[in-house]
Amino acid sequence: MDNILAGFVRALRAAGAEASTAETIDAARTLALVGYADRAGLKAALGLVLAKSEDEKHIHDQVFDLYFGRPQPVAMEGAAAPQLRTGDAEVDALLALAQPGPNGQGGDALATALERAATSAGVDEIRFATQAGYYARQTLEALGIAPLEARIAAQRANPEAQAEVQALEAARDQLRRQARAVVQQRYAIFGKPATEAFMTEVVVTRALGRMAPAEMERMKAAVARMARKLAARHARRQRVELRGQLDLRRTMRANAGHDGVPVTLAFKHRRRDKPHIVAVCDVSGSVASHVRFLLLFLYALHDAVGDLRSFAFSNRLQDVAEPLEKLPFDDAMALILKEVGTGSTDYGQAWVDLHDRHWDAIDRRTTVIVLGDGRSNGSDPRLDLFAELAGRAKRVVWLCPEAEGRWGTGDSAMLQYRPYCTSMSHCATAADLERTLDEALEAYH
User: Are strands 276-282 and 307-313 parallel, antiparallel or unpaired?
Assistant: First the structure.
């Protein structure tokens, strides 16, 4: 495949566009037809085969302009250096690049030479802005700046060559500025997305209860992206399994009129329940940050979850699906915490309210996800109702923000609830939430 196209696809993926292998092959075929000459036509054509949504189309257009554009020429500081020939072929070639003019080779030649040098220096591997100086130097070395610097050093001690030294230094400085501009462009294409991915990975693996306010927006974007990938993965699994196994009897009956030639194939289909999730969340102060991201995750999974019910409590349990569906997420969470998050935590009362008002939300298809620390201020945990809930549901998954070593200490009823749960685990990070929801959706395949 064309190395330029391969690099462009890599840049798209780094920016967040999920360009698949099949789409990349289509892009190669498109390039063979369109070519590079008509950049506007190429941009439109590649956008059709590589972008699957409006968001990806926006990413594609931005990356295309950056990737196929060249850095703006950096003007020389002060007056332009006079044209100069030293008699050294290597040095004169660099001067011709750095000093475009009547005898120079022009800006395009310098841009092309720097692009080749940057590729040779591995500039596409840049990951952090602090590496720009290093890669700019590596690019200049790949360009062959050593003879020019040696000439400057040799002539600096010659009093009669000061005008030449100034011209040589001006040319060297111009090459440095242009190399830096090329590196900055490559950083914008490859390094900045890699830095963002690294920072997102740090946030996703950080304890939710210790999330700094400045990290909240990054975390929200990361959770939404994780949810989209999770939904897409399970949608693919469902499509793969739709056909089932070949049903020989039905196939033979369907093709009786074709002398038994299997023109029409019939398959056995195993009935699969659509994901049906009931979330029961303790929104008291110690758990609120974890609840925020669980609910954000669940509501971002709307394409993968056929039926979702959400309940929140500190003592009295309420159905909170309506504000989450109708209000912006942050506004909905603020309202939930205001209306439900006050009062003394009482898990027993929450199970009573769920039993009396919403028991029909739970049946054999339901995965119940409980998020809470199981601390009920010494009140009756109503294990009888929780056992009945577990008997009605397909699965009961309990996520606890406290480490397992604290379960059963003080007023914690976690160890009393554990025998009735399909799984019970410590949930500290967004990665833990993703794993739990992945397993919950997997149970429906």
Answer: parallel
Per-residue tokens: 237: 């699994």
> Which contiguous run of DSSP H or E holds residue 369?
strand 366-371
Instruction: Return the structure tokens found at 259.
Output: 């002398």
| CB distance 431 to 204 below 8 Å | yes
Report the CATH number of the 272-442 domain.
3.40.50.410
Which residues make beta-bridge pairs with 370?
Answer: 280, 398
Q: Where are the alpha helices (H) located in 157-204, listed in sequence order? A: 162-186, 192-204
Q: What is the pLDDT of residues 313-326, one digit of tens each?
A: 998 999 998 998 88
CA–CA distance, 429 with 439 (Å, rounded to integer) = 16
Question: Could you say which DSSP state residue 187 is in?
Answer: I
Average pLDDT over residues 223-230: 77
**Environment class of 388 (CB within 10 Å of its CB; exposed 0-12, middle 13-18, buried 19+):** middle
With bands split at pLDDT 50, 70 and 90, how would you rate the model's confidence at 242?
very low
Rounded Cα distance, 103 and 91, in Å: 14
**Cα dihedral sign for 29, 34, 39, 41?**
negative
Residue for token pair 């030449």: 164
Residues 6+ apart with CB under 8 A from 128: 191, 195
> From residue 392, how far is each of 163, 360, 361, 366 by CA, in Å?
91, 10, 10, 8
Measured over the CA atoms of residue 423, residue 429, residue 431 and residue 437, the dihedral's sign is: positive
Q: β-pairing, 267-268 with 245-246?
A: antiparallel
* 244 phi and psi angles, rounded to 5 deg: 70, -160
3-state secondary structure of 16: coil
For 6-40, write each residue's pLDDT tens digit.
889 988 988 888 888 889 999 999 999 999 889 89
The DSSP secondary-structure symbol of 129 reads G
Q: What DSSP designation does 190 have?
A: I
Locate 254 and state its tokens: 């369907």
Residue 440 corresponds to which tokens in the numbers above? 């919950």
* 288-300 vs 216-241: helix crossing angle, rounded to 10: 40
| pLDDT tens digits along 333-352 | 889 988 888 778 999 999 99
For the stretch 408-427, what's the b/e string if a residue is b when 16 or more beta carbons lie within 10 angstroms of its beta carbon?
eeeebbbeebeebbbebeeb
User: How far apart are alpha carbons 172 and 45 in whole angstroms?
Assistant: 40
Q: Where does residue 106 rank: exposed (0-12), middle (13-18), buried (19+ CB within 10 A)? A: exposed
